[in-house]
From TrEMBL:
Essential cofactor(s): FAD
BP-aspect Gene Ontology terms: aerobic electron transport chain
Keywords annotated in UniProt: FAD, Flavoprotein, Oxidoreductase
Domain FAD/NAD(P)-binding: 3-333
One GO molecular-function entry: NAD(P)H dehydrogenase (quinone) activity
Source species taxonomy: Bacteria, Pseudomonadati, Pseudomonadota, Gammaproteobacteria, Vibrionales
Domain of life where this protein originates: Bacteria
Species name: Vibrio kanaloae
Stated family: Belongs to the NADH dehydrogenase family.
Protein name: NAD(P)/FAD-dependent oxidoreductase
Family annotation (Pfam families): Pyr_redox_2 (PF07992)
TM ranges: none
Keyword Flavoprotein on entry: yes
Amino acid sequence: MTKIIVVGGGAGGLELATKLGRTLGRKKRAQITLVDRKASHLWKPLLHEVATGSLDEGVDALSYRAHAKNHYFDFQMGSLNDIDRERKVIALSEFKDDHGELLMPSRELEYDILVMALGSTSNDFNTPGVRDNCIFLDSPEQAHRFRTEMNNQFLKLHAKNGQGTVDIAIVGAGATGVELSAELHNAVKELRTYGFGDLDSSKLNVNLVEAGERILPALPPRISSAAHSELTKLGVNVRTNTMVTQADSDGLTTKGGDKIPAQIMVWAAGIKAPDFMKDIGGLETNRINQLVVKNTLQTTLDDNIFAIGDLAQCTQADGSFVPPRAQAAHQMASCAFSNIIAKLNGRDLKDYIYKDKGSLVSLSRFSTVGSLMGNLTKGSMMVEGRIARVVYISLYRMHQMALHGLIKTSLMMLVGRINRVLRPNLKLH
C-alpha cells in the first residue's frame, strides 16, 4: 500500500490530509499519516483574537487524533528531525513532557510520497534583543503568553485606580499587527463591562511600528489608507518609515535613536521557514529556509516530495513568488491533492496557478476593510463595513467546510451563536 506522509497540520497540511483520507484512506488505496508536534490545530489567522481573549481556543481548536479517526488517516505526534531521501524515511525527534520525561522515543516513518507543510515562523532579522524581549504571535502558546501579560498589566493598572497607561508596541504592520492593534481596543472596551470601570482607550497606548512607507504593504494603497484612518480613530499611534534596531525589556529603539516605551512588545515583521529546514535532506532551499518547488509543487530535486503553504517558494508566471497567505495554502492543498492522485494513477501533473481572491483585514468589532477580486468585479473592488466583515468570517467557514463538510460546519456556526449568549465576550482566564 502506498504510504503518504503530510508533515505539518496547519491550514494547508490538515486540509490535504483530510482530503487524502476521505478518498484514498477510506478505500484502503493508501496509508495517510499526518505528523505534527502539537496535539491540536487552530487556524493561524485567528491567533490575534486568542491573544486578546476575544476567541476561546478551547472551543475552536481541533484535536488531530479525533479528526484523523473521523477522516481515515493516522496521526503521529512528533517533530521532524531529518529526511533520508535514499531510504525514503523521515526521522522524528524524541518527545518529552514539561518535566523532561520521555513520552515518545525518536523514530522513523517510511514514505512513498512526502508532503512538507510546516508553515512559517516569525523572522526577527537578527535584530538585537528581539528574541529575548518580544512575543512572536505565531503559535497558540505565544498567544496565551500575550494574553497573560496583557491581563496582568490591566490588573496592575486597575490596582492603581487607573493611574498610568498600558504601553504595547507592535512591530510589523501587516495583517497580524494591524488586526491585533484594533483587537486590543476592543479588549479594553469589553473589560470595562467586567469590573474594570476605570479602563478606557486613553489608558491603552498602542504603537504600531512599520519600517515601510505604509501599513499593509502587500495590499492596495487605498485599503492601506482606509485601515490607517480607522486605526488612528481608535487611538493607535501608527509609525511608518520607522525601523527598529533593538529591543530591550522596557521598550524599542529605532534607527533614528527614538525610544518607544512598552511593557509588552510583539514582533510581527516578516516570516521565515523554521531554521532546521535549511538544506534538509539535501533539498534546495532559499535564504529564508523555504523549500524551492516546481510549478507542480514538487521540490526541485525530488519528485516524491511536495511542499505547500508558507514553507514553499513557488514562482508565478510574472516571476514573483506566491504570497504567504491562508488562501494560497488552501489552493496549494487542493492542487497537491490533485497532483498526488494523478501521480498515483500515472497521469500528467498540473501546474499550480495562484488565484488572488482579494484580501480582507478585520479591525475587530469596529470595521473590516479589504478588496475582493474575481469575474464579477472585473478586477478588484474595495469593500468595507458589514459586507467586508461577513466575507472575512466566511473565509474561516470555508476552511471549516474543507475539514468538516457542510452539515458539521453549520452545526458549529449554530453552537457559536449559542455560545455568544452563554459565554462572556472575552476570555478572562
